Amino acid sequence: MGHSGRMTGVRLLVGTRKGAFILTSDGARKDWTVDGPHFAGWEIYHVNGSPAEPDRLYASQSSGWFGQIMQRSDDGGKNWQAVGNDFAYQGEVGEHLWYDGTPRPWEFKRIWHLEPSPTDVDTVWAGGEDAALYKSTDGGQKWEELTGLRQHPTGPKWQPGAGGMCLHTILLHPSDPDRMYVAISAAGAFRTDDGGATWQPINAGLRSDGIPDEDAEVGHCVHRLALHPSRPDTLFMQKHWDVMRTDDAGGRWREVSGNLPTDFGFPIAVHAHQPETIYVVPITSDSLHYVMDGKLRVYRSRSGGEEWEPLTAGLPQSHCYVNVLRDAMAVDTLDECGVYFGTSGGQVYASADSGDNWTAIVRDLPPVLSVEVQVLP
Amino acid sequence: MIRVVLPVHLRTLARTGKEIRVEVAGAVTQRGVLDAVERDYPMLAGTVRDRRTGQRRPLVRFFACEEDLSNESPDALLPDRVAKGEEPFMIVGAMAGG
């Protein structure tokens, strides 16, 4: 049994191109049980658990053939039931820019990200493609669009990134329920201070040379945002190129790429107990979506950016050409912070010591789209 | 009863076997059959037809009696042998992708 007085479990929720997998371990995080695939053959963009009740899970299941399904479990992923999948755009649908610059009506494709409420088990937000934010307050049966975001006056200027025009990041303020942040590829980051009724772009300081006006109000391909709950005004961003931070809730961003070998990438994460310790996985370039020089290296900064160190122990350092997608990195809240990520090659790596040492929990899953971690009582 | 064959992924979702049977009130049309399928298996709503427009999803096909009925009017009568329950109405995932 436990080597400390307290038994603690860790559960990883892994979404892949061909199903969901649930990986469990005790607090030592050495020996893992692999369960799955759930929803075999379907794309699972995201699985996430309720902080209020960890056995409540939500999974976004989709397929190019059969569209969007939403699944819910009330027993930690043993049993699932299909819940509501009616993701309607409410009010005037409107148009955004297509890849070729012509206007195109919003068209729902899938849910990329699920963000359960920290306090209410039945409340969950969902980020969609084409970009829209939805909320359910009945455990996923009914979904209501928060139209103030999609109908922002800049909406007609939003344009999809290569992965589609997706709302992929939802950050809830840890103490102010009226404040949230979202990010959309390739529109940028947005903040609400009134519970989602109205939104403002928070992209000042971003510079993107792939758009005609490099410091435009919207149009930036933000790949991921992260924050530490003790400092909710500080956000970290992995943009298409550039790692950025803001210390005034998005009022102004500054670049903190520093000595990274490349500052292109997808995920960014913050250490659970050290708000200035952050992680990225640099990718060669926008045209070469795999790690540089055949080496899989997580980079860690202990100074909130600028100074970065490669973390390589246990990670392949030759002939490795994987990518790590934006939702495929997570940190746990155990005393010694665990860090996890999944790759396009189907490996899920875990570190039980803040990134110093890594081991592969599994090596041959389908391409990994998302990784979340839960600490179980 | 109308016999309906589901593609593998929708069988899993509906927790059923390859073939289901549905009662269709009135004329046996594509729309009538799909309304009955969604009535009896609500988790399939939106997977075969777009929820807003009611149109067949692009990568779904409808076959019956060795004919491709995908582009027939949703209100056209289905073949007599389908209406009599002698042949199934087949919902098929198009051959595409991997």
TrEMBL record, chain A:
GO terms for biological process: xyloglucan metabolic process. Gene3D superfamilies: YVTN repeat-like/Quinoprotein amine dehydrogenase. It comes from the Bacteria. It holds the Pfam family BNR. InterPro entries: BNR_rpt, WD40/YVTN_repeat-like_dom_sf, Xyloglucanase_GH74. PANTHER family: EXO-ALPHA-SIALIDASE, XYLOGLUCANASE (EUROFUNG). This is BNR/Asp-box repeat-containing protein. The lineage of its organism: Bacteria, Bacillati, Actinomycetota, Actinomycetes, Micromonosporales.
TrEMBL record, chain B:
It comes from the Bacteria. This is MoaD/ThiS family protein. It comes from Actinoplanes regularis.
